Task: structure prediction
Amino acid sequence: MSQQENSALNALADLMGLEEERVHEEEETAREAAEAQAARIAAEEKQRAEEEARRQAEEDERLRVEQEEKERLEREERLRIAEAGVEAKAAQEARLKEEQMRLDAQVKIAEKKQKPKWLYALPVVLGGLFISYMVYSNSQADKAAAEQAERDRERDEQFAKLQKRLDDQLAASAQEKERLAKALEAATSEAEREKIRAQQAEQKKKEDDLRSQKKRRSSSKKSKGGSSSSAASEPAPEVTKKRRKKIELGGGEDPLGGL
Result:
């Protein structure tokens, strides 16, 4: 082989080496670019997951505070209604006592005028009937209020259990979301990342369904609570003016009060 052929072969070998080096550098550059792209996507996914978790935690806290405030207002409303009932009952008993004293005074006045004894007893009988009716009405109202309070308590306990179960499921969902975010960050292939993203989408759907259930239950409890409060706050039926006109015995020295 001549020296010229050797030089040509050496030059060709050098060119092939340079080409291989160039190809290797291009492959290395492409690999580094792909790794950088994957790292950037993973960082963005992680940032989005953390932001979503933060927003979700804030929403959970807001809902918890709102629920506690609503329950506090409901308790205060029930206490107010109960106190109002006690005050109304005390005032009614005072009026009944005053009426009884007035009836007794009329009986004494009638005795001084020496009218028939049956006339003296009539105001007392009517007064006793009136007092018995009012006591019976009060007892029925107290019984209805106690039954309503018991129903409210049972409903609140049931609602609290359901809310706790939903909260536990939401907490587990948040942990699963965090696990998927870490798995996505650690994924090494696009197929694996696509699979994890699909799992994240399914997990988000389940979590949204849980939150929807929680909101529906809160709205349902609010509407039921309002109905109970309205029913409890209805005043007891009062004696009509016509009825009171028939049984009122005051206004003069006549022991029958004009009957």
Q: What stands out?
A: The radius of gyration is 43 Å. Residues 57-247 form one domain. The helical segments are 3-112, 117-186, 190-232, 241-247. The mean pLDDT is 77.
